[in-house]
Every structure is written in structure tokens, then in C-alpha cells.
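Record now logged underneath.
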Amino acid sequence: MTSMPGSGGPTAATTPPPAEAAGRIRRFSRAERWVHRTTAWLMLLCVATAACLYVPQLAELVGRRHLVVTVHEWSGLLIPVPLLAGLASRALRADLSRLNRFGPHDRQWLRAVRRRDHRPGSRPAGKFNAGQKLYAAWIAGAVPVMTGTGLLMWFTGLAPLMWRTGATFVHDWLALAIGIVLAGHMAKALADPEARRGMRTGSVERPWARAEHPLWEESTERPEDPKR
């Protein structure tokens, strides 16, 4: 339908997008979704090529070891790039601030998980629950270590043999741990279609937000506490 003159005025400016008007609330910006998607693909590529290098059956099946090594090295080196580029986004910086803060409600969430308490209200969470914050902290710490040890293995002239041997040990075992943690992260995502839809489209249904992230859902109706 053709807009009438003046339809771009104050009323149009305050009209919410159709998704929000249909009972959905905005969860992630386009920049955040791009960072997540790009980082995920790079990390999956890195893990897949690592498997091809370390599992003999896969190495024999895939072949072309030099190409696999090259793809592994460059995909690993590029993993931090999407996040660094995304820091230009105010929404991403705000979410990083939320991920970096642990509050009393996060400790309550962890206690409820430990007791397997699923009662309503037993697991209060802001925009990110305590599990997501721990996962983000783990990845944020693991990626620089993997990058540093990988560079020592790649450029053999950077350090003596003893250092390179230690770097290889750390790199290999940390890679295995990352693979296990990533598998758990993906399993949780596969079990929650609405969470995946939120990362894909940027918005989620309000009832889901109220059930999974009640403190954040409440804050969407008033000025938000950045600590949540």
C-alpha cells in the first residue's frame, strides 16, 4: 500500500517493527548475528580440519594434507577477526559488558542447575544466563591460547624446540577440550529452536524470553540494567 504524505513523521518513527508488534522482542542486532555466524563457521572449519589432521581415518579419507593444514592455520588465525570488527557495534559492546558481569541471580542459576531445580523462578537470568557467561569466558580465554600456541607451531623460528614442544602439547589437548565444549554448546542450541531463531532473525517470542531470561524480559519494558 502506498504511504500517505507525512507517513514518515513522528508516528512512523515510534512504530515498532512487525516482529515486535507480533509478540516478539529484539534480542540481537544484525552486527551481533554476523559476528556469531562468521565466528561459528571459522571455528567449525578449524575443528573439522584439526580432526582431519589428527584422526588417521579422516586424514586418509580426505588426503591433500598440505591444503588441510593451510586451511586450518588461516581459519584459526581469522577466528578473532569478526569479534574485533564487531566492536564497532554499540549493541555488541553492550552484550560483551553483560557477559562480563556475574550477579547474585547468576549464582542462584548455577545452584539451581546443580540441584536440577526446574521450578518456575528457580533459574533467574538476564539477557544471558550464567551458563552462557561461563561459555563465553571459556572461549574468550581459549582462543588467544590456541592462537599463540598455533603461531609457535606454525613459525618454527619464533621459539626454541622446548617451547614448541610445550606449545604443541597445550594446543592439542586444549583443541580436544574446545571440541567437547563446542559439541555441548551445539547440543543445547539444537534443543532450543527459539534460541536458534533468535540468533537467526534477531528476535524471540516474549513467552520464551519470560521463561528463559525473565530478568531481561522484564527489562525490555523499562530502562535496562546493564549488569543483566
